[in-house]
Amino acid sequence: MLSMIGLLGGLILLIILTLRGVNLFIAAPICALLVALTSGMAIFPVTADSNFINAYMDGFAGFLSAWFFMFLLGSLFGKFMEDTGAADSVASYIVGKLGMKHAVLAVVIACAVLTYGGVSVFIVAFSVYPMALSLFKDADLPRRFIPATLAFGSVTFTMTSAGSPEIQNWIPVKHLGTSPYAAWEVSLVVAIFMATVGYFWLNKMIKKAVAKGERFAARDDDPIILERERPHPITGVIPLLVVLLLSFMLHDVLQQTALIVALLGGVLSIVVINYKYFHNMANAINMGTTGALVAIGNTAAVVGFGAVAKVSPAFIAAVDAMTHMPGNELVGAAVAVSVIAGLTGSASGGQAIALPLVAPGYLDMGVNPEQLHRVVAISSGALDSLPHNGYVVTTIRAICKETHQRAYWPLAALTVVIPLVGVALALSLFITF
Question: Residue 213: CB partners within 8 Å, gap ≥ 6?
Fold first, then answer.
């Protein structure tokens, strides 16, 4: 009982501190320590048993090891797009051709294409942010909606849809023996629903804010846009296509390493194509590397909390309860994956923990594996987007330099509420037909 109080208390405290803007290098370890103390976990590694220091640092260091080069190259890619003026050039072209009213749509489409092309959602945010900033500035839209726009195009109707190369659509393949295109008919209906309703809601929120007098507010640390010759818009699109194509072609062969190659190709293509347009390459490199360290550090701090939570008795009991729910198996799987993803702050974490426990029994009971695949994939992308989620923290704080108070609630509407309704729609279609 005490462990459960500590787990829930630590999670709630982490959410509150995150929303209040407390430094995550302080907030996450403190909340993880609360979980450890109430779980009877040793604090220091004086024995071979599980302890707080080792558990936290294993999670922290493991994330750094797995993602450092992707964050570094992704941050450099974004900064090079800014410094050369390529992002501004693309933004100006889009606004000129489509009109300012389609600025938001352009950002959503760019994120969706890259995500469905296999680029990690973290890197999509780094890559598209410079263009999004320019588009929102040209259209005079409140910049606090940029994180929500980036997230909507990345982690909703694309990340968990049939055919998506993102890990959230591939983890079930291993456990269920399905294909990435499992239940594509229902997936298509749900994706269209989420895209349509989500985009309408996003526009409605932005229009309401503009009607109240909110406008784009420039900041001192915004990229300096000088009156100078800009590169052709196509030179800003080519590097994005290089990343997309390399990631897509090499994904099956190199797996996660393909993204490193793809991002390196994108960075080099910017340098080759737009070298003469650099304003200050050395400064762009310095800012890019610093931004990458801040982004990956914030995310790793939250991952460390999840690593401690996962070894607590309360978490083990919660997983057992969630994976043995009575009633319809598809509903039980959706609830289990959603809740576990919320506790860990990770969509892939929710799947990786729940599927090995529920898949064998459900398959033996005759549950359709393709339906189970799609329900698990979609449900994993809902409660995972709570304030402490690594992608949410990175996008809001490190990339967009916003606060949770200003930017999180529009993002939550699109990445928590819309996917939850999408899960309900998928379940109703599977159960009815």
Answer: none
How far is CA 192 from its chain centroid? Answer: 20
pTM for the model stands at: 0.85
Buried b / exposed e across 116-146, counting CB within 10 Å, b at 16+?
bbbbbbbbbbbbbbbbbbbbbbbbebbbbbb
Mention every residue, 6+ apart, whose C-beta is less than 8 A from residue 14. 27, 28, 31, 302, 305, 387, 388
For the stretch 312-329, pLDDT in tens is: 898 888 888 877 777 788
User: Which pLDDT score, from 0 to 100, does residue 395 have?
Assistant: 93
CB 183 within 8 A of CB 204: no
Distance of alpha carbon 312 from alpha carbon 14, whole angstroms: 16
**Residue 123 structure tokens:** 């890197």
Q: How far apart are CA 25 and CA 401, in angstroms?
A: 16
d(CA 93, CA 129): 16
DSSP state of 89: H
Closest to 82 (Cα-Cα) out of 295, 294, 291: 291
Would you state the structure tokens that stand for residue 109, as one six-digit string? Answer: 């489409």
